[in-house]
Amino acid sequence: MRRLVVVLVVIASAAVPATALAEPFVSRTCNGSSNCNVWFTSPVSLRWTYAGTVTSGCQNETLTQDTAGTLRACFVSDAGETASKSVTIQLDQTPPSVTDAVADRPPDHDGWYSHPVTFAPKAADATSGVLACESVTYGGPDTADARIVATCKDKAGLSASRTFPLRYDATSPDLGPANLTTGDKVVRLSWPAGSTAVLTRSPGTEGGQSALLYDGPGTGFTDRKVRNGRKYRYVLTLTDQAGNSASRQLAARPDRHLVAPAKRAAVGGPALLKWTPVRGARYYNVQLFRDGKKILSKWPGQAALQLKSKWRFHGKRYRLKPAEYRWYVWPGEGPRSENRYGRMVGKRSFTIAPA
């Protein structure tokens, strides 16, 4: 049995002609690579390699126009045998077009966002199609000219970005600069510009528990419906254009009083004495004392008196020297010749410091 098998193999091998032709074959490359089944983003150089006689196709070429799929093929034959290969070229040289960025919610107030907001970009791509768009969240800084950058990528790997505007403010108004001053039957309030203000007071006007005094875009209010010596509580609320609000309480007790210099202030020279104007006062009497002795009396028509370094009083010469001084102010009522004065505006002391 072993001898018979050997004889059969020898006979079969001898039947194959020594000069048999190789079978035809076809291969291709794209930009020098055998991998053509990808998206290209630059011109594609298609090259064919084959053995045999071309029967169709097989042209080497460079494709430069964007295409979602262009079919090319190569057919060859030899001694009755055939071989072929086809390839679909995908070329996209154009980035996607970012068309929109859609917020996950409407603005918080009058076109303004006051809390972080997320945008979903939208895009279009005519050739390979859109692969993905990255969502983007904006949460500051505060500005009326904020920008987000929306980015999308197509299936060929090309990216594009586009900016979109928004207005953002997450900060409440600053009430720190709000100020209140009092005078004779008057309270003056002021606050920063840029917000809508609502001002209420308790007790209110005309016997009410509270009253709305002001509602508007201004920067201050003067309340003259007050009584001296009575305490009032004001609530100031500021709301900015983005809808952010802040409130602050301020207390006041109106009355006539001295303003400057401050209590027991030390000054380096002739001081400017100031006090609150008194309703109905036609003039004022200012008296200055040193060591318990009156050394000056003046009758200014305004609520201020600028002291001098030297002056005369009751025929004697005086000058400001380092010492403690006490001053008093009374409002004059009616003609000065009548010598009528109202309740004292105030009394206060200051010191002239040594040079």
Overview of the molecule:
By secondary structure, this protein is mainly β. It has 4 domains: 21-91, no CATH class; 97-168, no CATH class; 179-252, Sandwich (Immunoglobulin-like), CATH 2.60.40; 258-352, Sandwich (Immunoglobulin-like). The chain is built from 1 helix and 31 strands. The protein has one helix at residues 2-13, and strands at 25-30, 39-40, 44-51, 53-57, 61-63, 67-78, 81-91, 97-103, 112-113, 117-124, 130-134, 136-138, 143-154, 159-168, 179-183, 186-190, 196-202, 211-216, 220-223, 232-239, 245-252, 258-260, 265-267, 272-275, 283-290, 293-298, 304-306, 310-313, 316-319, 323-332, 346-352. The strands form 9 sheets. The chain has a 5-stranded mixed β-sheet with strand order 23-31-30-25-26, with no helix packed on it. Strands 2-7-6-4 form a 4-stranded mixed β-sheet, with no helix packed on it. It is rod-shaped, with a radius of gyration of 48 Å.
